[in-house]
């Protein structure tokens, strides 16, 4: 019983990451406010980052640095590439979110609304 519980908990991070991405996708596709759409896309980005980091994790692994145990068990090292990719993706996601929020502010100042249906009906 406890072995199956631990094996289910091993995959809990993957399901949590997929759940976070689905919640963000729901917010990006269903909501009508541009601010909520940008927040939904940011949540999708966070869920994807969590998924990539959890894929690169190795249970019982050690940090990918030269340590005394490195030569004895090199197969137990955690892959550093997903961590580096996620670090880069976080910075890029922050920049994209900042630009998107700047565009939302400009649209609000120009049209006076954030509702996407009302903005589509207006003429420039």
Can you tell me about this structure?
- The chain has one domain (2-58, 77-121): Orthogonal Bundle (Helix Hairpins), CATH 1.10.287.3510.
- The radius of gyration is 21 Å and the shape is elongated.
- The longest helix is centred in the C-terminal third of the chain and has 31 residues, at 81-111.
- With 124 residues, it is mostly helical.
- The chain contains five helices and no strands.
Q: Write the CATH fold name.
A: Helix Hairpins
The CATH C-level class name: Mainly Alpha
> How many β-strand stretches?
0
Strand content: under 5%
Radius of gyration: 21 Å
Number of helices: 5
Q: Structural class of the secondary elements? A: mainly alpha
What is the CATH architecture term?
Orthogonal Bundle
Which H/E pattern describes the elements? HHHHH
Per the principal axes of the C-alpha atoms, what is the gross shape? elongated
- Overall pLDDT: 84
Span of the ends, CA to CA = 64 Å
Helix proportion of residues, in percent?
over 70%
Number of domains: 1
Biggest sheet features = none
Uncertain ranges: none
How does the SSE layout of this entry go?
Elements: H1 2-10, H2 12-30, H3 34-55, H4 81-111, H5 116-121
Question: What characteristics describe this protein?
Answer:
elongated, Helix Hairpins, mainly alpha, 124 residues
Brief account:
By secondary structure, the protein is mostly helical.
């Amino acid at each position: 019983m406890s072995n199956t519980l631990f094996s289910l908990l091993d995959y809990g991070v993957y399901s949590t990451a997929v759940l976070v991405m689905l919640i963000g996708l729901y917010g990006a596709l269903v909501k009508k406010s541009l601010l909520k759409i940008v927040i939904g896309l940011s949540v999708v980005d966070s869920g994807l980052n969590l998924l990539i980091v959890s894929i690169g994790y190795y249970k019982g692994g050690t940090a990918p640095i030269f340590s005394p145990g490195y030569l004895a068990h090199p197969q137990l090292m955690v892959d550093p590439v997903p961590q580096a990719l996620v670090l880069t993706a976080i910075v890029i996601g922050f920049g994209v979110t900042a630009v998107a929020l700047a565009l939302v502010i400009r649209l609000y100042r120009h049209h006076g609304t954030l509702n996407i249906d009302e903005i589509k009906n207006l003429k420039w």
